[in-house]
User: What shape does this take?
Amino acid sequence: MLSPKFVPLVLKQVLRRRTRSLLTILGVATAMFLFTVVESIQAGMREATEQSAQETTLVVYRENRFCPFTSRLPERYSSQIESIPGVVSVQPMKVIVNNCRTSLDVVTYRGVVSDLFAKYHAPDLKLLSGSVADWQARGDAALVGETLATRRKLKTGDRFSANGVVVSIAGIFHSEEPQDQNVAYVHLDFLQRAPGVKQLGVVTQFNVKVSDPSKLKEVAEKIDAQFKTDQSPTSTRGEKAFIARAVGDLLELTRFTRWLSIGCVIAVLALVGNAIVLSVQDRVREYAVLQTLGFKSGLLSRLIIAEGVLLSFLGGMLGTAAALLLLKFGSYSLSNEGLSINFHARPELLGVGLLLSMALGVAAGLVPARQASRADIVTAFRI
Assistant: This one.
C-alpha cells in the first residue's frame, strides 16, 4: 500500500504532462464506455431469454411463422385452450409492430381483451400516471410502457400514432417484465379494426398461464396436439424460449460483442501501459535522485503503479458514468419481431467498471515499475 503522504507526489507526476495524461484518461474512458454498453446489452439479453424454474407463461404462435405480420390464429382457439387441464387463463393477443426487423426504435401494439388484462396482468404493473379504469373506459386508449414513453417523449393525455394506428395515452406504467417496458397495450377489438388490419376474429398469439411450472411442457404439447390437423396449426413454447427463438440473430450478435468487450479491456491495458512507460523514461534521472535520497525500490514501484491506477480510475469513472447516464436517460432497446432487449443501466456496473480499470492500471504499471526500481543509479545519471 502507498502512504497517503505520497499522494501529492503522484498527482504532481500526473499533472506534469497534462496533455499526455488527458489523452490517456480519454482513451480509457472511451474503452470503458464501450465495455459498459456491451455489458448492458449482455445483461438485457440474459434477462429476456434465460428460463427459470418458476416460469408459468406459454406463448401459442402460428406454426412456421415468425414475424407478427404472418402469424394469424382464429380467436376461437381461446375457449379450446382454456379447456385443457392445467391452464389457468388465456389471453388472445393481436400484435402490430411498425418494423419487424431488428431496430432501435420499434413501436409494438398489443391488443388484449380488457377484462382479462385488468384481472390477470394489470395487477403486476405499477402505474406511473393515468389509470387502468381510464384505459378501459375509452376504446382507442393505450397503456404505454415506461421505456417506450421515455423514448417517444409521451405523457398521459397525448395522442400517439405509429403504423397507421392512432391512440390516446390513458396511462404510463412500469413493469419488471422486459417485454412490457417497450409496448403499448390497446383493446383487442380496436386493434382488429385498425386501418390496414381489419381482421376481426383473428389474433397473433395466445399468452397462456398454467397452474404449475412443472406442467409447462406437458400443456404446450397438448395445445399443439389440439390444433395439429387444423387449418392453422400452432407452435407453443415457454415465454423465454419463444423470445430466444425470435431474437436468435440478436443472440449471435451479442455473443460477438463479448469479443468487442475483451478488445476494450486489452486496449485499456495497452494504453495505460504505454503512458506509464513514456512517463518513466522521461524521469529516469529523477528516480535515480530519489534513490540517492533514500527512496527504496519498493516505494518507487508503488509510486509508478499508483500513477497508472489514478489514470485508469479517472478514465474508468468518466467512461462508465457517461455510459450509464446515456443508457438511463436514452431508454434504448433493441427489438426484433416486436420483442425487445432492453439496455440495462445497472448501478453495479459503475463499481465493476472502476474495479476493472484500476486492476488494469496495476497490471499496466508492473513492468515499468520493475524496470525503474531496478535501474542502476550511476547509469541513470548518465542518460
Observations:
- The chain has a mean pLDDT of 81.
